[in-house]
Amino acid sequence: MPDSPYSHLRYQFVTGKLAAAATRDIAQRLSNEFGFAFSIDVLPITVAALMTPKWLKRNLVIQSEIDRIVLPGYLETVFEEVRSAFPDHADKFVCGPKDIRDLPQLFGKKKKRAEDYGGYDIEVIAEINHAPRRDLSSLIREAKNLKADGADIIDIGCDPNSRWQNVGEAVKALKGEGLRVSIDTFDIWEATEACRAGAELVLSVNSTNIEAAFDWGCEVVLVPDQIGTLSGLDENLERLAQKNVKVRIDPILEPLGCGFAMSLQRYMQARERWPEVEIMMGIGNITELTDSDSAGINVLLLGICQELGIRSVLTTQVINWARSSVRECDLGRRLVYYACQNKIPPKHLEPLLVMLRDPKLKQYPLSVLEEMAASIRDNNYRIIAQEDGIHLLSANLHLHHSDPFELMAQLMKLSQAKNVDASHAFYLGFEMAKALTAMTLGKQYEQDEALQWGFLTRKERHHRLSRNTRRDNAEE
User: pTM of the predicted model, to two decimals?
Assistant: First the structure.
């Protein structure tokens, strides 16, 4: 076995009865890989989460010639108290993970995200569609929400078939809230009024309205005269430069099936032809018009922008599957920036963008489940979701089925079910529904914990027995 930083160490893993089998199984595999010696110290408590420094001082015996004492992660908040309780061995204590299946992380099996992660250089412009149809308070509220989600500029989208008489008032109100504002219109009057009120960017300009742009005094987005080409950009860039008008170009991203690949090529051509000119990409044309959750699409398009030096994107979140696009773009731009800066794949860096499925499932071997079931002495129910179905464990009980209804039917036929009142049945049904969802999508299920949906995760209260009530049955 090759030498490792851990091969000369002896570990004492401290655990409770319920996790003993799993701890032994994982520790043995890690020992085989890294070459360290170990022992498992199973303390007289069912649930390791109920250990306290005072209780450990009474029950923990530190073995001779031990180099590291690995405690359950639940003791992290009182770790210094534990060390103080054992002053002669304080430096030997290590706080492991809360979930024993994460123990490999203690041995460097998972890289931590770098401290300098989080930078970005792509600006997110978030459009509020059909802004003229909103009352002012609604417009401000939506703009503030977009800003909170990561938008740098709030783009107010006008209706092409009618003129927004109150556009100036709207821009002033948004500016009064400390927001940066752009206007999305080809109507010269609307653009003029918005710029007078403080808009800093006009979307969009081509040969039809370029002369008016000379007098707006703000930056403009220049688009081709003919969609599907780069026509007019050379001439109009020169005209805007002569008038000292700040500009970014947008070759127009077309929907999938309508010329998407060719439009990407035009962005590449634009970057090659005008290496110093700022470029914007309207990524909402893809997320809004594709039957797919938007997060992955946004990250991919942002990655293209990062590599091409496209420093602004325009997005919107109208359709429900794209309702969190601005937040996705904010997280995504940080991910692709770090990947490109460090020339590494954007993997294991941004857990908040992994929403539908989890990166990895932590499963118990069947033998460990059986040992866990045999070690339980109380009547509380433990629910564990595996690839083969849902397992229900309690004292002298181990039921298993892929259908929660069938599992409950099995339970209710047994004498142990006398402790299942209406409240308890609701709790079990709630948790089994979560377990089934996790199995269906490939997510990790942990009893009494919220399923992880990335930045969309909703915290949950623990609904099982209180900590003190559970403690009464924990020690034997």
Answer: 0.81
